[in-house]
Structure formats: C-alpha cells, structure tokens
Design a protein that fits this description.
The complex is a heterodimer of chains A (98) and B (216). Chain A has 98 residues and is an all-alpha fold. Helix content of chain A is 89%, strand content 0%. The chains are: A mainly alpha (98), B alpha+beta (216). At the A-B interface, helix 1 of A face helix 1 of B.
C-alpha cells in the first residue's frame, strides 16, 4: 500500500514532466520567434538601405530636374530675346537686299 | 529515515515544478515580446516597401521629366545656335552705322538698338522773330537707296508728322501743319540724301529743334 507521500511524489513527478515538456516547446517556439525577428530585422535593414538609396536617387534627380528647369527657363529667355532681335533685324530698313 | 528522504524528494519536485512554471512564464512573456516586435517589424517592412514602390514610381516619372527637359534643352540649344547664326548673319548684312554719316555740323546722329529709328538733334538752331523761317539741315549718307521716308518734327510739346514718298526727282514736301507751315525737302543724289526742314513758330521765339527720321 502506497503512502500519501508516494502518491504526491508520483503526481508531482508527472506534473514536473509535463512542465518540462511544455517548457521545451515554449523554448523552441521562443527561439523560432527570435530567429524570425532577427531575420526580419536584417530584412528591414536591407529595405531601409534600399529606401535610402531610392530617396537619394530621387533627390539627385530632383536637383537635376531643378537645374534643367532653370537652364530651360534661361534658354527660353535667350531664345525669346533672339527671336525678338531676329524679328527686329528682319524689319531693319538697312538690311542688304542681297 | 525513508520518510524523511521521501519528503526531501517531494520538496525537490515541488521546487522543480515551481522553477519550471516560472521558466515557462518567462518564455511566454519573451515570445509575446518577440511576436510584438515581429508585428512591428512586419509593419515597418510593409511601409518601407510601399514607400520604395511609390518613390520608384516618382523616380521613373522624374527620370522621364529630366529626359524631356534634356531633349527640350537640346532642341532649345539647337534653336538658339541657329537663331544666333541667323542674327549674326543678319547683323553682318546690315549697313553699319559708319555708312550713315552726318555731314553737317549742325546735327547729331543716334540710332536705337533695333536700327530702325534715326534721331537727329540739332546742336544749333537759330530763329529770329515771328514768322521767320529757320532752316535746319539734316544730312545723312546711305549706300542704300531709300524710297519711303517719314518725317517727324518735334516742336516743344507737340509732334507733327508728315509722311511721303520720295519721287523720281527725290524731293518730298511736308506742308500744312495747322496754322504754321513746315516743310522738308529731300534731295537724292548718288545715294546721298539731304533733308531740309523749315519751321515757323508763331508763339515761341525759340524752338528746341529736334527731329526724328524713321526710314522704313
């Protein structure tokens, strides 16, 4: 006949084994999550770098665009003044007929 | 003795269970934190991916605009170059100012930027008394024959104008300005043109004699 202590030891041992199993599962799960988070961090870092590159390119093109726009405006002004000058010259009475 | 040993074992098992429970809770907490971090990272990655996608579209659009501007600037450059050449060519085809000489000491010659208007300003202008005609001679020489001449006579605040064609003999008479009589005579002789304007001022003893010639 087993005593109450024996029964308690058996029951607690079973619980202990169960807890060990649960702990192992949780440990594995947590490790997987840690790995996943680590991989996501790496991915995030890569994407951030890519975003930075794209932003840099965009900024560079914006600057180039602004420069070209200014150049275009100046060229248009020059062209307008040349057109006006040409028009006046064509109307110049002292233009040689030949 | 056996009982004491069993109680000790029981105590150990209880402690082990408690430790395991604590460890399991720790793992649960840790995994929850990691799950939260994963969700945040996933959101960040999604946002970044969306931003990259948007910025790439913007970049493509900007590249296209830049290309357009480059092409436009290239075209403008070509046009400017072409127009500059034409302007230079036309400029070289215009009789230079030195060909239009003032041969009278009484007049000065100016020309505006488009070469269209010629301004003559008298350096001396004499007039004595009412109805006395004071002739002013405008003399300029041109190697190009002129057919149409417009004469303007500036007289204080008023401007009188008369237009006319040079006739075969090369003379033009400008007459009939109000009550006063003004006329100019042009003589054509071998490409040398003489302009003579006579003025008569009833109200003023002195006329700031400024004349403008526009040759069309």
């Amino acid at each position: 006949m087993k005593s109450k202590i024996d029964i308690a030891i058996i029951v607690l041992s079973v619980i202990c084994i169960s807890l060990i199993v649960i702990f192992i599962f949780k440990f594995i799960e947590t490790n997987k999550l840690i790995e996943k988070a680590s991989s996501l961090k790496k991915e995030n870092a890569g994407i951030l770098e890519e975003l930075e590159n794209v932003n840099d390119s965009l900024e560079a093109f914006n600057k180039e665009y602004e420069n070209l726009q200014n150049e275009n405006r100046k060229s248009n002004e020059i062209f307008s003044s040349l057109s006006e000058e040409l028009r006046k010259l064509k109307n110049n009475p002292y233009l040689k007929s030949d | 003795m056996m009982k004491k040993y069993k109680i000790f074992i029981l105590f150990l098992i209880v402690m082990l269970n408690l430790t395991l429970i604590l460890l399991i809770f720790y793992q649960i907490t840790k995994s929850k934190q990691k799950e939260k971090a994963i969700i945040q990272l996933t959101d960040t990655i999604d946002n970044c991916t969306r931003l990259i996608s948007e910025n790439r579209e913007k970049l493509i659009e900007k590249i296209s605009q830049v290309q357009n501007y480059k092409v436009s600037n290239k075209i403008l450059e070509t046009k400017i170059s072409d127009y500059s050449t034409r302007v230079s060519s036309l400029k070289s085809n215009i009789y230079p100012l030195s060909n239009i000489n003032v041969s009278s000491g009484e007049v000065l010659l100016f020309r505006d930027c488009d070469g269209k208007n010629f301004y003559y300003k008298t350096s001396s202008f004499s007039k004595s008394g009412y109805y006395t005609k004071a002739p002013v001679w405008f003399v300029f020489k041109s190697t190009k024959s002129l057919r149409y001449v417009r004469v303007k006579v500036f007289w204080k605040r008023n401007i009188y104008e008369k237009t006319g064609y040079l006739d075969a003999s090369g003379s033009i008479y400008v007459t009939g300005f109000g009550n006063n009589l003004y006329y100019g005579t042009f003589y054509v002789s071998g490409g040398i043109y003489f302009a003579k304007i006579l003025t008569d001022d009833y109200y003023e003893n002195y006329i700031a004699g400024t004349g403008t010639f526009t040759v069309n």
